[in-house]
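Target chain:
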Amino acid sequence: MSNHSGTSMRTTRSRVQGLGSARSGTGHFWWQRVTALANIPLVLAALAILICVAGKPHAEAVAVLGHPLAAIVLILALFSVTTHMRIGMQVVIEDYVHAEGAKVLALVGNIFFCTAVALAGIFAILKISFGV
């Protein structure tokens, strides 16, 4: 197949399945949409929780944040937001970083940074929740 006439170099099967050259583009596309949708109620709930504890004495704030429902909502929000952030930055890096070495370094850095943010936040929430 020649690409000069505007025809695709992909096989018919890969076009039907929506698979890109790396076979992961469609999955990233859907995960980004799913996390974006999940972020709406989760971030609103997390903001409501944080607004409730704003200005409260330390003991009251810890009691609210230590409630299992509040902790679960905050952990889910952190997971969803950081996953969405990782996927979004991956797309930006893949689109705009053209040097292969820099691209790999940026992608690895993106994964480590997003994972560190998620783990630090989840650790803090669990520490408050379990009263450690």
